[in-house]
Specification:
Elements (H helix, E strand, L loop, with lengths): L54 H23 L5 H29 L8 H4 L5 H23 L4 H21 L6 H36 L13 H29 L7 H10 L1 H43 L2 H18 L8 H27 L1
Length: 377
């Protein structure tokens, strides 16, 4: 996959080992040996080491406290109360970073590791003992750079994407008018909304880069033993991306509900935003389906080529000798060929099918809402 030449990041790395500015696997040759396989997610560094409070408890609890404090403040000022919208946005401020940290951990456990069940054995096979160490290092370098690029703001492109979402969202808020009567509440709303937009921008960038990674994997040669189709690593990859798609759909549904019950309702500006964002859950499910299909299809084609060669060789031997054993070999070769042809290369597991159906339903509903609102206006 062609990638742009990466530029040096001016940010100071937080990890002990320096993390290079990375823009895809084209930067493999410039990976420094001091880099570790995984660095903590940026939001992990913001979480203090509170005993008995892991990040998946502490961060959502902070979001809940923000909601309770906001409700108390609005009640004290006697101002307009958008309870559903405030609940979704406030809790999202805590739950969103927790989910990004979780996806970072799951990324390492799903794609990392070694052995015959790992993704490394599929994308970087160890042909013999001499190549084993090199293949393991190549895969580790490739995975480490992708993980830094996906979950960290390590490039100018990442920062530009986040700032773009931030500015567009704030411009929409100011153009639609601040929702409260109290200037103090409007200032608090502006600050919290800016924080939420920053989180949304980083989540959107992470989502796009995860799809880029899947595209890169879909373009590579795969080496799956015939007896291990479907391979455990490909199945784990499918479950991971199905989970990402499900979270995308869930986030979109909650966003639609928050906007619907918010101060602006389904105004033209809000419909425009929701229509653009409807592409995310559809793209997550559709693209993951297609790219995992490409992986499975390439693995199937590899074995189909071998089976075809086996059939041709058996038939040539049978034509030359005409013995019963050679004719039996042709029959067995044809059975192997038929078995390979009947292998499914479409990832129709239950989780991915449900995610696809949910994304399609959410996207279809948004199109219907947008058309209805445009006709009304």
């Amino acid at each position: 996959m062609a990638t742009a030449e990466p530029k040096e990041s001016k940010r100071r790395p937080s990890s002990c080992a320096r993390a290079r500015d990375f823009d895809g696997p084209g930067d493999l040759d410039r990976l420094s040996k001091g880099q570790q396989l995984r660095v903590p997610h940026p939001y992990e560094r913001l979480v203090p080491r509170v005993p008995l409070l892991p990040y998946w408890v502490l961060l959502p609890a902070i979001g809940l406290l923000v909601f309770v404090a906001g409700e108390a403040t609005v009640s004290a000022f006697g101002d307009r109360d958008f309870r559903v919208t405030q609940a979704v946005f406030a809790i999202g401020l805590g739950l969103g970073p927790a989910l990004l940290i979780f996806l970072s951990h799951a990324f390492g456990s799903t794609l990392g590791g070694d052995g015959t069940d790992s993704l490394a054995s599929v994308l970087w096979p160890q042909v013999d003992g001499h190549d084993a160490e090199g293949a393991h290092k190549a895969f580790g370098d490739w995975l480490a750079m992708w993980q830094r690029h996906i979950f960290g703001l390590q490039t100018r492109t990442a920062w530009a994407a986040v700032f773009g979402v931030e500015l567009a969202g704030l411009a929409t808020l100011l153009g639609s008018g601040l929702p409260f009567q109290s200037p103090l509440l409007n200032v608090a709303c502006f600050v919290l909304y800016a924080a939420l937009l920053w989180l949304c921008g980083q989540a959107a960038f992470t989502f796009v880069q995860l799809l880029r990674l899947l595209t890169d994997m879909g373009s590579r040669e795969v080496y799956v033993p015939f007896s291990r189709i479907p391979h455990p690593a490909v199945s784990a990859l499918q479950r991971y991306y199905s989970g990402v798609a499900f979270l995308t759909v869930l986030g979109y549904v909650l966003l639609v509900g928050a906007v619907w019950e918010g101060p602006y309702g389904l105004s033209l500006a809000m419909i425009a935003w929701l229509s653009i964002l409807a592409a995310f859950p559809i793209a997550a499910t559709t693209w993951s389906f297609l790219q995992i299909h490409a992986l499975l299809d390439r693995a199937k084609q590899h074995h189909l080529d071998d089976a075809n060669e086996l059939v041709v060789a058996a038939m040539r031997a049978a034509q030359t000798t005409g013995t019963a054993s050679d004719l039996e070999a042709v029959h067995k070769a044809l059975e192997v060929q038929d078995r390979v042809q009947r292998l499914s290369e479409w990832p129709f597991a239950l989780s991915s099918t449900l995610a696809f159906a949910a994304a399609l339903s959410a996207g279809t509903a948004q199109v219907a809402i947008a058309l209805a609102a445009w006709m009304k206006h």
